[in-house]
# Entry
Amino acid sequence: MPKVMIHPAGYDNVRQAVDRAFELFPVEVTGRKVLIKPNVLRASEAKEGIVTHPAVLRSVVEKVEGMDPSSLVVGDNPGIFSYGANEESFKKTGLMEAAKGYYQNIGNDSQKVDFNPEYMPMVSLSRAVLEADIIISLPKFKTHGLTVMTGAIKNSYGLLPGAQKAQLHKAAGNPERFHEVVVEVFRLRVPDLFIVDAVVGMEGNGPASPDLLDIGLIMASDDAMAMDAVIAKMMGLEPGRLRFLQKAKEIGLGDYDLDKIEIIGELKTLSHFKLPPLGGEIISENKVIQEMMHSRTLLLPQADAELCTACCTCVDQCPVSALSMNGDTPLVDAESCITCFCCQEICPEKAITLK
Ligand code: SF4
Ligand code: SF4
# Structure
């Protein structure tokens, strides 16, 4: 039976929870190549809660260091388009220091691998991922406008180098297919251990929302579906209504049935947890909304003129050139927009919301 650890923790005592995670989910690290992958969405301050907190990364690095791996790499492919240099993102968040010299730009070296031709025949994957014997994934407990939540499965989307992420967003073409693409990427190389930073989580219009929530937990599992089912439950969602979990079950990656998951700790739904404006759970159930989403007219990014600094980052990085500057703010072309929400993720001013 898959197990999920739910362990009380603060950023000043993460190590205790990390030690417990390694006791419950032993991984053969000694003499092997280890890759640790935090969630580094983009350059931001650690206190913004957009990335895995440096205290969590440092604890895991120190734990693995002490187990004598043959090599250790800490890396991620920040941002959908590698917006902001990797080094810059790691430095600004404090993750570079926490990586203790093991940081590597894993986006610099990639290799083509077979993918599901329904979306794309081949994709690039960071070579560090292909060469690792052990991958330890460090997701952040967050909401996500497109997949409702990010957790164990969605964290693996960062195993793709930046431009590849954008191409797949485009190939998916609509939110429901994007849920499926996320799972296809995850299955390319399923990580061996997941340690989730839920000390401070994110609710509302994630994955770069200003709404943070003190949860006070570190969670862990060696089973991504069990992990995400528990996160979904904590957010007040029915795991079986999330399209990416449905898809993962369909292709035999596990089960989201909470009755078949052993909880080590206390599983509580967070009261009044704020979900993104329109979640994938609704997409997968409601045919009318589904059709509207597919027609790409329901949710569109909109920039807040008060917050926008006219930096043009969103315009430059939209994978289908659906944005253009209209005076000092970007304007979306509803016909071209594929609702990938990348502009929302990368806007450094958090000026874009989905309307
Ligand atoms: S919405 Fe954000 S990314 Fe786009 S131009 Fe304004 S500040 Fe820059
Ligand atoms: S406008 Fe934003 S949501 Fe629409 S396709 Fe471009 S980046 Fe994606």
User: Anything to note?
Assistant: The mean pLDDT is 90.
